[in-house]
């Protein structure tokens, strides 16, 4: 197979499970392999250097794309396998947009189960999400070898958590699961629940005992939208308060299976379920 000739990769597991935008192309996790897709050339490129099966990828796109620092930040992609006991984890790092990866093993004394990783360029750290018993916390690993001690516990008992970094180098981090939606305004140093601003001025929890979070999306203006299991949509802007309001109740089921699209001031939720690469 020629990975740079536009051939479409075939394997036993060809489901698309994750994707990140990297400059002018998209890096995708298909099965346990990483590919780059170029929309203009309509070509697929299999990543080199990943020696193990991976199930997660992460990148961070800088907002000022022409600045040398931002171009370097936007070219970094990491791939990893989650649910590995600390410290026996392996992370693959790419500095060229996801084409070539090198293996790295963060050196740290930590216990728990590794859940995922994000890049925080404004503080020069690789932040690892770790689960200990039923609690989560971050461990921050400096690219210069200086392990920070600022970690914290996430106060929910869900088995899995998803991390979202809004663009803009503001240090905002959103952590969500089926039953929880948390926000950090300062690189994960402080974390608190995102609350709903009620009509009477009271702050209310997002979910009742019969609801789950179905999806969360954030655009370049730090606007956030949340879709719940019963078709409700909540909307807000991430700042120090991170309050949201209910925008739509009982969203039609036909609109729940669309793709995610963002614009300058509006979030349109379109959710793709069970995408197959063929």
Instruction: Give the strand order of the largest sheet, numbering strands 1, 2, ... along the chain.
Output: 19-18-23-22-21-20
Q: Which architecture name of the largest domain does CATH use?
A: 7 Propeller
Envelope shape: globular
Count of the domains? 2
The first-level CATH class name of the largest domain = Mainly Beta
Counting DSSP E segments of at least 2 residues, the number of strands comes to 25
Q: How would you portray this structure in words?
A:
The chain has 278 residues and is mostly beta strands. The chain is built from 1 helix and 25 strands. It has one helix at residues 68-74; strands at 16-22, 25-30, 33-38, 43-46, 56-59, 77-80, 84-85, 91-94, 102-104, 113-120, 125-132, 135-142, 153-154, 162-164, 173-176, 181-184, 192-193, 195-197, 203-204, 213-218, 223-228, 233-237, 243-248, 261-262, 267-268. 30% of the residues are buried.
